[in-house]
Predict the 3D structure of the following.
Amino acid sequence: MPDIAANLAHLQQRMAAACARAGREASEVRIVAVGKKFTAEIIREAAACGLTVFGENRVQEAKAKIPDCPGHVRWHFIGNLQKNKCRDAVALFEMLHAVDSLPLADELNKRCEQAAKTMPVLLEVNVSGEGSKHGFTPADAVEAMDAFEDFPQLELHGLMTMAPYSRQPESARPFFQKLREVKTSCENKLGAPLPELSMGMSGDFEVAIEEGATMVRLGTVLFGPRAGASAD
């Protein structure tokens, strides 16, 4: 079992320092603890340490794990969502971080309507232009603001992105800056604020916080490495 309490205390110190460098309050940034490939036992220990928001990348893994986890914790879906998993995603999660197309948004809206539920969502923006990543282009994200009038069951709360993997955290900064710029353009198009920026993982979260992240998606830095997975 990892020493989650010690890891969390150290992490909170690093987050507070990053916030101070950016002139922000530590309370402005929330941890989404990434539970991918970690057991319900570890989630329970993390919840006992005070973590309240957990992210999962796979619907089927979450479906099996969530019933064995504390009932008070909140679950966000942070991975690529297939349309045939939307019904389960709507049932299991309270926020979706990676709405990467209008057809997916349309399907989610239908499933939310069937479930009599309103779902907070974030648009995934591929700011790096990498073909291996999902998401709207920055220009398409801005244009998508008009379409959300057609999705009354979805509450658009902001944007998310993944920076290209690098061993140098500073290399992520231009991508986080770009997402912040896209958010401003989307807000101008929408005529309403988008309060959330989900960006930053275990290798680059401090840079993300300096550039305005409100949610950082952290797994390895809390729970240690997982087999066959990148640092998140």
